[in-house]
Amino acid sequence: MLTIKNLHASIEGTPILRGINLEVKAGEVHAIMGPNGSGKSTLASVLAGREEYEVTEGEVSFKGKDLLDLAPEDRAREGVFLAFQYPVEIPGVSSTNFLRTAVNQVREYRGLEALDAVKFLTMMKEKMKLVEIDQKLLSRSLNEGFSGGEKKRNEIFQMAMLEPTLSILDETDSGLDIDALRIVSNGVNQLKSKDNATIVVTHYQRLLDYIVPDYVHVLYKGKIVKSGTKELALELEEKGYDWIKEAVDSEATV
Amino acid sequence: MSTLTKQNLFEGFLETSFAGFERAREEGKASFLKQGLPTLKSEEYKFTAITKKLEQSITSFQSAQPFAVSQEEVKAGIPTGFEGTVLVFANGHFIPELAIDAAELTFSELSEKPETAVGSIARADKDPFAALNQSSFYGGIFIQIPKKAVVVKPILLLSFNKANEGQLIQPRVWIEAGDFSEVTFITHTINKSETPYFVNKVVEIKGGVNSQIRYYRVQNEGKNAIEASTLETNLLQDSRFTSVNISLSGEMVRNNLNLNLLGSNSEGNMYGIYLLNGKTHVDNHTNVDHTIPHAESNELYKGILADQSRGVFNGKIFVRQDAQKTNAFQQNNNILLSEDAIVNTKPQLEIWADDVKCSHGCTTGQLDEEALFYLQARGIDKTQAKGLLLFAFAGEVLEHIHDESFKNYCTDLVQERLGSKF
Ligand SMILES: Nc1ncnc2c1ncn2[C@@H]1O[C@H](COP(=O)(O)OP(=O)(O)OP(=O)(O)O)[C@@H](O)[C@H]1O
Ligand SMILES: [Mg+2]
């Protein structure tokens, strides 16, 4: 579904991603872990099409299409969804209007008919249950004044509404209490199918108890320096990143 | 600062004789000659080179004459969804025959108003263009809302402007809202010519005790129109005045909005949006004068400027020594969509009382790129995402339009302009 080959990206001339290779197949869950500042969010943003990042080398194909060639909105319409690490507050834009516009533009692109107000509301109600999000939140401006946890829940709610094929969850678990974590993970798990894939960026093993990954990758200094199965996450939880950092850094000095 | 040569532009014009109001006209003319046309050295006009603009576009002035407007044109000019009284003006001249649903309304030619009223609220010595209007306005209308009358449906002042080069349109309106009355005015202009002309308008409003007046204006002048306007309101005890001004086009527009809070517990609200593109220049000068204790003023102006447009906001809050317990709030926010667009914003607070609550703030920035990306990342087309964000920014002002159908009309206009209508 997603093939990343030798991806290099920089921001304002500073290289951040330095040769990422990753293959994600339908039905899989990949976890990306790594110390702060290693480039996890950068990778997520580059996949979603953030213009500030300049791709200097490499290629990304998504369902056979050159992903890097598409505008951010077309990537979303093709089925890429990024749950932001820091969802943006947008005062004055109502959550409902925003979602309806988004859902219908995505549907139109996918050759589905637009939802009228009633159908949209029905769909909203159904998906709201999935992440146990309060109706009151959605009658407010988009993310405005939402707590950290509410914002994250809203991200997963949007994901449920947009029905993506590839979801990239950037630290969706950070700032969630244990109940919220369970609810959000349940939501993600219910949306999982053999046809879609999920990339979860996280610092914490506890999320991976709920969303069980098929593969775990460690990103460090803009590269995937280690890959393994879910046991790797347990090992990282126990030993931290130092042993990996040391191995990589000593290799680099040789 | 008077620069005598600058009078030349209006010299011949000022020699023309106008019927009625001899004393008021003399006073206006003398005041105009004394003040002279503003230059960039005049503090109040330093960002708005209107004199130069007039000189460049127009060589000599003459009064624009009324012209025939058909009932069909009137119908077509009424904002969608509007229901209420319509008063029609052609080049500033009131055309009584074209009025719609006006039987209940008390109005007359301004000439039936005692001469001393003219210029008693919008004083000639405060602004050269107000003085020019007072010297040479033609026709004009006087509208009276009787004591305790609650006019439920809004009153539309519908102006048709069709001027040839060099023509001067000088409307003058006097509104008296009686004690305990309530009324909503909407002003709307239909432009019928592409040649440069100059509209110089004065509106004087007297808000009686406990009256409530709303005054909404859409400025959608021709792109070659140069406009100066003064709207000045006196507010007595417990009265409330709300202005919403939406500027969308014109070559150069200068709006003076002056509110005089003369009675305790009076409230003045000033809201505005300016959405500018091309080379349009819009200058909003507002002035609220708190003269007595326990009055309140609120102000919010929002600007979105594209291309080489230019916006000026100057908001003066004057709190006199006696005006204790004043509440005054002012906010001006701007988004610049191009590197060539300019905005000059200047809050001007002059506070002589010590027990007041006063706040002001102004911001000028660009469209929030992060927010834009967030919307795009959800599948929303970039242009539409921009439109959504811009409307979210400016739309707040429209919330202050009380009349539902006019609010919808303005929402449509604004969304259309911002590309957020889809
Ligand atoms: N505008 C910028 N200019 C220069 N460097 C930047 C810019 N934005 C991000 N970076 C740097 O890029 C690196 C990678 O950042 P990124 O947000 O991708 O890290 P991360 O792995 O997601 O970290 P975290 O775990 O803290 O979320 C960091 O060192 C960061 O400081
Ligand atoms: Mg991050």
Can you tell me about this structure?
The complex is a heterodimer of chains A (254) and B (422). Chain A has 254 residues and is of the alpha/beta class. Helices cover 42% and strands 28% of the residues of chain A. Chain A has a single domain, classed as P-loop containing nucleotide triphosphate hydrolases (Rossmann fold), CATH 3.40.50. Chain A is built from ten helices and twelve strands. In chain A, strand 9, helix 7 and strand 10 form a beta-alpha-beta unit. The longest helix of chain A is centred in the middle third of the chain and has 15 residues. The mean pLDDT of chain A is 93. Chain B is an alpha/beta fold and 422 residues long. Chain B has two domains: 262 residues, no CATH class; 55 residues, no CATH class. In chain B, the strands form two sheets. In chain B, strands 1, 4, 5, 7, 8, 10, 12, 14, 16, 18 and 20 form an eleven-stranded mixed beta sheet that branches. In chain B, strands 3-2-6-9-11-13-15-17-19-21 form a ten-stranded mixed beta sheet, covered by helices on one side. In chain B, a hairpin with a 2-residue loop joins strand 2 and strand 3. Chain B starts with 7 loop residues before the first helix and ends with a helix. The interface between A and B is medium-sized, with 31 and 24 residues. Bound molecules: adenosine-5'-triphosphate and magnesium ion (MG). Magnesium ion (MG) binds next to helix 1 of chain A.
